[in-house]
Structures are given as C-alpha cells and as structure tokens.
Amino acid sequence: MANQHSHNAELDALHLLTQLVQTIEVGLVVLDRQFRVHLWNSFMENHSGQRASQVRGKRIFDLFEELPEAWLTGKLETAFLLNNRAFTTWEQRPCIFKFPNSRPITGQSPHMYQNLTIQPLSNRYGEVNNVALVVYDVTVEANHRQALSKMSQVDTLTGLANRRMWQQHLEQEFERSRRYGHPSTLMVLDIDHFKTINDTLGHSAGDRVLAAVGQKLGQLLRKSDVAARYGGEEFTLLLPETTQEQASLLAERIRATMSELVVETDAGEASFTVSIGYAPFHDGLKDNKAWFEAADKALYEAKRQGRNRCILALAS
C-alpha cells in the first residue's frame, strides 16, 4: 500500500512538472548531442507554429534555417564538454529564433527579442548528453530600452538629432571624407529675428516655429543627411556625398521654402526667414571643429549682409 502511495505521489509530481513545463511563459527546448529535439514546450509551439510531434527527433538546424548555426553550435559544444551554463542577451544577438513579435507597434521590430540560457543536463551517472535551451521573450524591455536610447539622441521639440548625436555624426563624416576624399558639406542655419517671434507672439509660438522648421528640413533632406537642432534657433545639416554646387542649390531651396512658410500659432500667424552658411569639406581643414567654424563664420557673414541669404565659406 505504501509503495502504491509513493508511486501515485511520483505520478502527481510528474503531472505537475509537465504542466509547469508546458504552461510557463518561456521557451523550453531539450537537445541531444546531435542537436535533435527531445522536448518542445507550448511556448515554442505557439510562437514557431510547429507542434512538438512535428519537431521531435529532428535536428534543430534543419527545422530553422535562420538559426546562427556556427555560433550556436559553439555554445552548445561548450555546454556539453565543460558542463557550463551559458547566457546571451538580445543586445548581443537580438533574436535566436525569428519568432514574430506578438504585439507589434509602429516603428518596432517585427521579431521577438530574446534572451537565451543554455543549461547542461546531466543523467544519473553525471554524463551530459542533453542541453536545455531556455528562451525568454524580452521584447517589451528591449523596445523600452531602445525608445529611451532614441530619446537621448533626439531633440524632442523638432524631432531632429540633438547636438550630442549630431557631434558623433560630424566626427564620423569628417574622418570618412578625410580618408576617402568623398565630397561632403556642412551647413548651419539660423532663424532670422527669432527673438521677435518670441517677444510678439510668445514662446509657445516660437516652439511651433522651431517644430515647423524641423519638420520641413526632414522633408527636404535625404535619408543619408543628418539634420540637428544645434541650440536655440540654430540648426546644423551634415550632407554626405554633396558637392559645393549641390549644396548651393539645396541651401537656396531651403532658404526659399522657409521664407514662404507660414506657421499657425495660438497667437496668430508666424512668418520668418533663415540665414545659411555652408562649408564643403576640403583637405585644409585640420579637424571637425575647424569645419564647423568655417560654416558658422559663413552664417555670421550671411547675417551681416542683411540675413535671408546663403553664404559659401571661404576656403582657408
């Protein structure tokens, strides 16, 4: 009778364990040394679309061609040989299994971000003939972290890059142009008499104008260009693969577009002009700071000559 009771207790425990394995909100996969599937829980079924009966006994790399076979094999072999647990995070490799993101939001990855634990499994003799892959869905955390990272790089008022982000692009573009000799132009733009807008219509109207300028620049520039709010009413534009002639045409187009722009504010309509200075890259520039200063001096000259104009920097 005692043996029967013990046997029933073991069955109950096994039943509970099976429920846990099947209902837990992580993926559980058990592989043997030939990387054949021995366990495939409900999480894996639901997100892969493949039933356990379909995958059991089959080699995991034959089932999912997108798996990074060389990388994952190295991790698995280490687990088998050294009996060591291994971890990877979405920051190292965003997704191991390309499962669809079950809660996609505009602008976010279509795939599930995953953390992975590789756990060696010993038999009763201490031999490691199986490993478990534990797959965690960290999509919410990853999207949150990426959103915070993006916020730290973007000027929230205009939607353009902020000064810190733009500085990084400037340094990279300066080195690229210096090394490969590709044409590139740096442009600095300033809203004329911006203080008057703030004084007559209020600071909220000034913010509307800044936002409108940011939006319009986003429409006028290519995806490869980098526009940033440098500070106050000053904007910077980094234009890779842009010659002096092309920059001249773009500067004039921007100037003319801004002069025709009418911004609706709570205090009335706001019209304005901009002044632009631009400096093509050349070998005489000693560093990216000198490049910016050349464009900034050209902007100052545009202001001095009466504003609402585009001035080319003098090569020095």
Automatic annotation (TrEMBL):
InterPro entries the UniProt entry points to = Diguanylate_Cyclase (IPR050469), GGDEF_dom (IPR000160), Nucleotide_cyclase (IPR029787), PAS (IPR000014), PAS-like_dom_sf (IPR035965), Rev_trsase/Diguanyl_cyclase (IPR043128)
**UniProt GO molecular function:** diguanylate cyclase activity
Q: Which Pfam families match?
A: GGDEF
Entry GO terms, CC: plasma membrane
Q: What class of enzyme is it?
A: transferase
Gene Ontology BP term (one): cell adhesion involved in single-species biofilm formation
Enzyme Commission numbers on file: 2.7.7.65
Can you give the residue ranges of the GGDEF domain?
182-315
Coiled-coil ranges from the UniProt annotation: none
What this protein needs as a cofactor is: Mg(2+)
Give the matching PANTHER family: DIGUANYLATE CYCLASE DGCM-RELATED (PTHR45138:SF9), REGULATORY COMPONENTS OF SENSORY TRANSDUCTION SYSTEM (PTHR45138)
Q: Which named protein is this?
A: diguanylate cyclase
Q: Which organism is it from?
A: Ferrimonas sediminicola
